[in-house]
């Protein structure tokens, strides 16, 4: 039948088995608390072996720890400035003493369990690459430039990163308008193409493009009721600005609405005999267009 060690003597067994003796003039931490903390850090030794001595002295927040050999020679010393419970101070003191002892007597160091396998790092989350947006759009238009006229437009848009800067190209034409000069009448019509830079804002399922670009136009004019009716045409450059809105609610198809303004800086005049007079072709145009687009809104 195995002999049982009474609990009251367990601390004494630990103290006797340590390779270092603890002397402390403090009750916080006490000799017993420091020795018990050392028990988990150092291996036990035979009782016949001469032991080193750890001296612990506390004054306020300062904790003086000295390690001396069996003959009393100083081997190491350290001053700790710490607050905490007695158990926390005992554990800290034990770590300092065990570190010194394992440096002087490596055989006293208690073997630590092998660490378990390292967990694999979590896979890095890579955000999906931005997908470009594009659309091919056709629609009808209605614009005011001295009078109302309907027309047609076809457009191509491309946004490299789905939002932000992009490019929009368009070709458009409108029905013939008229200017009355006395008994005569001048007929005029513009056809044009647009290259515009844009900035896209997206709020699913809506995309909103702000546009600014240049216009290459072609103006055709003819007369009726003049003494001599003539026809002519001329290059008519311009500037445009506007907004284009699309609703991507049906897969690759989207209805769209566009509002634009155009300015034609080149001056064009229709004139006849003195009795007929003359009139200028309007230099400003404000219009809207509505249609359907086929494309991709991007990601």
Annotation field: number of helices: 3
End-to-end Cα distance, whole Å, is 78 Å
Largest sheet: 8 strands, antiparallel, barrel
| Proportion of residues in extended strands | over 45%
Instruction: Please report the total strand number as a whole number.
Output: 15
Supply the CATH class of the largest domain: Mainly Beta
- Our Rg estimate from Cα atoms comes to 47 Å
How many domains, as an integer?
2
Low-confidence stretches: 1-16
Explain how this protein is built.
By secondary structure, the protein is mainly beta. The protein is built from 3 helices and 15 strands. The protein has helices spanning 10-17, 31-39, 86-104, and strands spanning 20-24, 52-59, 62-68, 74-81, 133-144, 148-159, 164-174, 177-181, 184-203, 206-224, 231-247, 253-263, 269-271, 278-280, 284-296. The strands form 3 sheets. An 8-stranded antiparallel beta barrel has the order 5-6-7-9-10-11-12-15. A 4-stranded mixed sheet has the order 1-2-3-4, with helices on one face. Strands 13-14 form a two-stranded antiparallel sheet. β6 (148-159) and β7 form a beta hairpin. α1 crosses α2 and α2 packs across α3 (86-104). The longest helix has 19 residues, at 86-104. The radius of gyration is 47 Å and the shape is rod-shaped.
Characteristic terms for this protein:
299 residues, mainly beta, Double Stranded RNA Binding Domain, Porin, 2 domains, 8-stranded antiparallel barrel, rod-shaped
């Amino acid at each position: 039948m195995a002999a049982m060690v009474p609990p009251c003597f367990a601390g004494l067994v630990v103290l006797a088995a340590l390779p270092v003796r603890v002397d402390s003039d403090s009750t916080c931490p006490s000799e017993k608390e420091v020795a018990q903390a050392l028990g988990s850090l150092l291996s036990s030794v035979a009782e016949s072996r001469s032991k080193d001595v750890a001296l612990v002295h506390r004054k306020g927040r300062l904790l003086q720890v000295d390690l001396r050999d069996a003959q009393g020679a100083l081997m190491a010393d350290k001053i700790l400035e710490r607050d905490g419970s007695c158990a926390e101070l005992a554990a800290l003191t034990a770590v300092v003493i065990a570190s010194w002892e394992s440096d002087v007597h490596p055989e006293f160091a208690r073997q630590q369990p092998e660490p378990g396998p390292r967990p694999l790092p979590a896979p890095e989350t890579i955000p999906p690459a931005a997908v470009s947006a594009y659309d091919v759009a056709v629609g009808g238009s209605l614009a005011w430039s001295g009078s109302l006229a309907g027309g047609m437009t076809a457009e191509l848009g491309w946004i490299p990163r789905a939002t932000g800067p992009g490019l929009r190209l368009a070709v458009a034409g409108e029905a013939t308008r008229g200017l009355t000069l006395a008994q005569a009448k001048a007929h005029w019509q513009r056809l044009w193409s647009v290259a515009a830079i844009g900035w896209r804002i997206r709020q699913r399922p809506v995309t909103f493009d702000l546009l600014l670009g240049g216009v290459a136009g072609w103006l055709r004019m003819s007369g009726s009721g003049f003494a001599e009716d003539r026809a002519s045409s001329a290059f008519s450059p311009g500037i445009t600005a506007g907004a284009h809105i699309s609703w991507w609610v049906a897969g690759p198809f989207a209805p769209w609405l566009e509002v634009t303004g155009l300015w034609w800086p080149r001056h064009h005049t229709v004139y006849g005999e003195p009795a007929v007079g003359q009139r200028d072709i309007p230099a400003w145009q404000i219009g809207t267009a509505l249609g359907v687009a086929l494309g991709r809104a991007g990601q």
